């Protein structure tokens, strides 16, 4: 049979020790960053109906033919 070793109790850690083990030592190189306001999105063009789109395309073709 295998024998298990009993664990010895670990000493309690102070809050500073826990922080240092989790995050490392604090340094002055840390920079705090402020969140920026989101930039407004550009306005999207209004949606054209099929008829309007077809007419606009036809007028552009006619303008090109005139040149």
Query: Which class best fits the helix and strand makeup?
Result: mainly alpha
Low-pLDDT windows of residues: none
The proportion of residues forming helix, as a percent range, comes to: 25-40%
Report the major sheet: none
Average residue-wise pLDDT? 84
Count of individual helical segments: 2
Give the strand content. Answer: under 5%
* Cα-to-Cα separation, first versus last residue: 99 Å
The count of strands amounts to 0
Radius of gyration: 35 Å
The H-and-E topology, N to C, reads as: HH
Gross morphology: elongated
Description of the structure:
The protein is mainly alpha-helical. The chain is built from two helices and no strands. It has helices spanning 15-23, 50-66. The protein is elongated and about 95 Å long. The model has no long low-confidence stretch (mean pLDDT 84).
In short:
This protein is 39% helix and 0% strand. It is an all-alpha fold. The longest helix is centred in the last third of the chain and has 17 residues, at 50-66.
SSE topology:
Blueprint: H1 15-23, H2 50-66
Q: Which structural traits does this protein have?
A:
67 residues; mainly alpha
